[in-house]
């Protein structure tokens, strides 16, 4: 019976992800099926160099300084035996993969006795494998697919953040304007909107924030899902009235007559990062903590500030990512941040439910977020 139930749930999840994680429920799909983050079972010890390695998750100030430890901390605590883990990401060349890829290249994970295999895979496919324990971690975000998996009773959690945008960055919503029209005068109700992703993506949260300031809701906008080149072309040739532009694409519209920047990712609030499945959440929590230590140590050593101020490091990073140094240099450094703010998953689910890609009710945060791994890695002993 239990085997049949699990097989049925897996089939439902597979169907959901094949449909880009749109709303998909079975007769036993409800919020009660999701698993809460466990209480810390082992004593957390203070970690030298990480006295400022934690901030209150409820601090939503846009000027909040991200948590930081001293360079080369937290110190490695190698696992007793060499352990291989499999991590997937939708792309391997994006700048936000920098800490993960450089950490592997610099041997930070090896210091923990971890052998990290990094694979490229669409998140809509990877979330199924993560939920079933066929991969260990997924670099993604708390997107609709993850929420639907949790609703089906699969143990998947967002365990640490990735970055927020530099105040100088203009990744976000751009719109066409008429001569003399200001950004404040833009009305997006009924607008055609181009994006790389659809309504299942976490990016709908910051998009909704912008729409709300311009007389529109998510349901008032006609979304067009295009590739990166297509998004920019559609905005330029009039195929859409607005678009979400990524680094460094927005640079070609900056200071260009007829285009305005309306807003992007909330300052000081990561909306993506690393997801763990049952292998690290349940079976091998010490491996999950070791992975967190290595990633956080990489951030503190190489990505703590304006890392692109050093041309030699920018070149090294471009080489590791398989990117071009001129592309990295064209836009500001990311504000790396391993922590997760309170309320992010609540706001994301609101958009998913309105977009009809997740069914109500929304899950509580403890069903989707587990901060215990990064808290233990930096030695935070409080709540």
Automatic annotation (TrEMBL):
Q: Does the keyword Signal apply?
A: yes
Q: Which PROSITE patterns match?
A: PROKAR_LIPOPROTEIN (PS51257)
InterPro entries assigned to the protein according to its UniProt record, in alphabetical order: SsuA/THI5
User: Which controlled-vocabulary keywords does the entry list?
Assistant: Signal
* Range of residues in the leader sequence: 1-27
Annotated SUPFAM superfamilies: Periplasmic binding protein-like II
Question: Could you state one GO cellular component term attached to this entry?
Answer: periplasmic space
Does the keyword Protein transport feature in the UniProt annotation?
no
Instruction: Give the main location.
Output: periplasm
Task: Write out the annotated subcellular location.
Answer: Periplasm
**Boundaries of each SsuA/THI5-like domain copy?**
100-254
Extract the Pfam families matched here: NMT1
PANTHER family on file: ALIPHATIC SULFONATES-BINDING PROTEIN-RELATED, TAURINE-BINDING PERIPLASMIC PROTEIN
Family named by the database record: Belongs to the bacterial solute-binding protein SsuA/TauA family.
The name this protein carries in UniProt is: ABC transporter substrate-binding protein
Lineage, highest ranks first: Bacteria, Bacillati, Actinomycetota, Actinomycetes, Kitasatosporales
């Amino acid at each position: 019976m239990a085997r049949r139930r699990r097989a049925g749930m897996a089939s439902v999840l597979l169907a959901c992800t094949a449909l880009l994680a749109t709303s998909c429920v079975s007769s036993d799909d409800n919020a009660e099926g999701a698993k809460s983050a466990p209480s810390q079972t082992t004593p957390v010890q203070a970690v030298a160099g990480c006295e400022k390695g934690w901030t209150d998750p409820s601090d939503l100030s846009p000027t909040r300084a991200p948590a930081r430890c001293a360079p080369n901390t937290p110190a490695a605590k190698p696992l007793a035996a060499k352990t291989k883990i499999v991590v997937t990401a939708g792309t391997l060349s994006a700048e936000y993969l920098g800490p993960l890829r450089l950490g592997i290249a610099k041997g930070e994970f090896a210091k923990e006795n971890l052998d990290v295999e990094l694979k490229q895979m669409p998140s809509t496919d990877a979330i199924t494998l993560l939920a079933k324990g066929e991969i260990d971690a997924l670099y993604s975000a708390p997107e609709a697919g993850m929420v639907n998996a949790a609703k089906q009773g699969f143990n998947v959690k967002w365990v640490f953040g990735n970055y927020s945008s530099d105040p100088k960055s203009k990744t976000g919503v751009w719109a066409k304007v008429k001569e003399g029209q200001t950004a404040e005068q833009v009305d997006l109700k009924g607008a055609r909107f181009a994006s790389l992703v659809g309504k299942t993506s976490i990016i709908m949260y910051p998009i909704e924030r912008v729409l709300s300031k311009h007389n529109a809701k998510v349901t008032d906008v006609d979304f067009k899902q295009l590739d990166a080149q297509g998004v920019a072309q559609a905005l330029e040739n009039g195929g859409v009235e607005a678009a979400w532009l990524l680094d460094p694409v927005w640079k070609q519209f900056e200071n260009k007559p007829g285009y305005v920047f309306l807003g992007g990712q909330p300052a000081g609030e990561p909306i993506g990062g690393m997801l763990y499945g049952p292998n690290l959440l349940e079976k091998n929590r010490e491996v999950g903590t070791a992975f967190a230590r290595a990633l956080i140590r990489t951030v503190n050593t190489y990505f703590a500030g304006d890392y692109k101020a050093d041309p030699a490091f920018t070149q090294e990073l471009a080489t590791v990512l398989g990117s071009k140094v001129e592309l990295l240099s064209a836009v500001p450094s990311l504000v790396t941040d391993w922590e997760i703010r309170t309320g992010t998953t609540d706001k994301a689910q609101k958009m998913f439910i309105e977009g009809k890609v997740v069914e109500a009710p929304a899950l509580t945060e403890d069903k989707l977020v587990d901060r215990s791994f990064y808290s233990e890695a930096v030695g935070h002993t409080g709540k």
